[in-house]
């Protein structure tokens, strides 16, 4: 099975990757789109691609080869100036 996991450097991603490894999920079968390397997945031997949830055309390249997708991307901010970015991540990107 091939997995694609977004948000691998976040709160949930940092918990999910070790859990997958403990279940003997082969790291080479997991791909994580990311904006900034490195991440925990890379240290386990997983594949990473520079992609952004805010650019759907780049995500298609990752999701089209996955059997399952874990969409864990999220942001939290009380700053009104972040409203556009938050909307992009939580509404447009997902």
Task: Describe it.
- It contains four helices and four strands.
- The chain has 94 residues and is of the alpha/beta class.
- It has a single domain (3-92), classed as NAD(P)-binding Rossmann-like Domain (Rossmann fold, 3-Layer(aba) Sandwich).
- The protein has a four-stranded parallel sheet with strand order 3-2-1-4, covered by helices on one side.
Short description:
This protein has 94 residues and is α/β, with parallel strands linked by helices. The chain has helices at 11-22, 40-44, 56-63, 83-92; strands at 3-6, 30-34, 47-50, 68-71.
Reading side by side through the largest sheet, how are the strands ordered? 3-2-1-4
Helix content: 25-40%
| Helical stretch tally | 4
- In total, how many beta strands? 4
Question: Structural class, please?
Answer: alpha/beta
Question: What is the CATH topology assignment?
Answer: Rossmann fold
Mean pLDDT: 78
Descriptive key words:
94 residues; 37% helix; 4-stranded parallel β-sheet; single chain; alpha/beta; Rossmann fold; 18% strand
Q: What topology does this entry show?
A:
Elements: E1 3-6, H1 11-22, E2 30-34, H2 40-44, E3 47-50, H3 56-63, E4 68-71, H4 83-92
Parallel strand pairs: 1-2, 1-4, 2-3
């Amino acid at each position: 099975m091939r997995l694609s996991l977004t948000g691998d450097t976040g709160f949930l991603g940092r918990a999910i990757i070790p859990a997958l490894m403990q279940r003997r999920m082969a790291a080479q079968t997991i791909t994580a789109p990311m904006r900034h390397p490195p991440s925990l997945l890379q240290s386990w031997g997983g594949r990473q691609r520079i992609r952004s949830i805010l650019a759907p055309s780049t995500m298609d390249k990752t999701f089209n080869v996955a059997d399952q997708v874990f969409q864990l991307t999220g942001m939290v901010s009380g700053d009104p100036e972040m409203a556009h970015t938050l909307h992009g991540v939580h509404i447009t990107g997902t």
